[in-house]
Design brief:
Order of helices and strands: HHHEHEHEHHEHHEHHHEH
Number of domains: 2
Number of strands: 6
Distance between the termini: 46 Å
Strand order of the largest sheet: 3-2-1-4
CATH class of the largest domain: Alpha Beta
Structural class: alpha+beta
Helix content: 55-70%
Length: about 350
């Protein structure tokens, strides 16, 4: 454990992107040596902190390069933010990118500020790729105009998602809910996340549709406690770890947070608030927390061993106790889905 804290200190002192890349790979090596179930909670915080330092340094380097290039005008307020597992503070070692930039400036400065933001976004996401963060396959990155915007444009876009409530709009809202500041003016992102929750909380029809969204994908556990693994193709015999119950629990807690206007960014904070507000029956709340720990442990362990963040894990490679844990976690995921469906007015 101490070696991980020492590594984070080294990350903070890095001077080049190459040094950051070495630190990222060293993080995987050291974590493999200390990963134990009983240490999971402490390790999850350390891993998240390490990612935060790696990204902050990369974004700082990107800002410095953009200023040297004298591209556009740096906004008076701006912030890089992360989403997905990074935003929720539950990433594995080789997680992909989910990031954006939010900025505020005078109307007469907006064009030049956009030039700065587009350039720093391109440099920053490339730096992240170089140090070991794959590009997001869904293009949820600051280089996408959807995720690199002025405050005014971001608000108009979010309000359009809320107004139209189309399937993709719902998906984008679920993504944006996880936004957490990482570099720059943090309050800019914190305030907008709170506003986002306020807006959603006031829309019962939207909440109903978001509740329907939580029901998918189906948890791959059959009536007779049989895990429905992939039958054909390159992933034959494997289970998709994110879709195997993990994302269903995450989205269930997101929905409950929207329902109660709990604007916390991390899953653990959301779970605590949900439990304190008694939004879930206490036994189910405890089972949900245990299930999240199981999914995180298995994902972290096998992503670390693979050297890359893979979503598919061969079922037969899991230890017997891990298979037992995952089946229990899948049952919890299905119960949470049904609970949200009832609360949202679904089936």
């Amino acid at each position: 454990m101490e070696s991980l804290y020492e590594l984070i200190k080294q990350m903070e002192q890095t001077k080049t992107i190459g040094e950051l890349r070495v630190c990222h790979y060293e993080l995987a090596r050291r974590l493999r040596l200390v990963l134990r179930w009983e240490r999971l909670e402490s390790l999850s915080h350390i891993v998240s902190d390490a990612h935060d330092v790696l990204m902050k340094r990369a974004f700082q380097f990107a800002e410095e390069e953009t200023l040297r290039a004298a591209v556009g005008l740096r906004p008076r307020k701006w912030c890089w933010y992360v989403m997905g597992s990074l935003g929720r503070r539950e990433p594995t070692i080789w997680t992909d990118q989910d990031n954006g930039i939010l900025f505020e400036c005078g109307e007469h400065e907006e064009k030049e500020c956009y030039e700065f933001v587009r350039h720093v976004a391109a440099v920053g996401t490339n730096f992240l790729y170089e140090i070991g963060y794959p590009y997001c396959p869904g293009y949820v990155m600051a280089t996408n105009k959807r995720w690199g915007q002025s405050l005014h444009d971001w608000e108009n876009q979010i309000k359009a998602y809320i107004r139209d409530s189309l399937p993709n709009d719902i998906r984008f809202l679920f993504i944006a809910i996880d936004m957490r500041p990482i570099y720059g003016n943090s309050q800019l992102v914190i305030d907008r996340r709170q506003a986002l929750f306020d807006w959603i909380h006031r829309e019962p029809q939207l909440l109903r549709r978001m509740g329907e969204h939580v029901m998918f994908p189906t948890v791959p556990l059959g009536w007779f406690n049989n895990v429905q693994i992939e039958r054909w193709g390159a992933y034959s015999g494997a289970i998709h770890m994110k879709h195997g119950g993990y994302v269903q629990i995450i989205n269930s807690l997101k929905w409950l947070s929207c329902f109660a206007n709990i604007s916390a960014a991390t899953t653990l904070e959301r779970w605590r608030e949900i439990t304190n507000h008694e939004l879930l029956p206490l036994p189910l709340a405890k089972e949900a927390k245990e299930a999240l720990s199981i999914y995180y442990y298995v994902r972290l362990k096998y992503a670390t061993e693979a050297g890359t963040d893979r979503d598919y894990v061969l079922w037969r490679t899991l230890e017997a106790n891990e298979q037992k844990w995952l089946k229990k976690a899948m049952k919890t995921a299905k119960r949470l889905q049904r609970f949200v469906a009832r609360q949202a007015g679904g089936k």
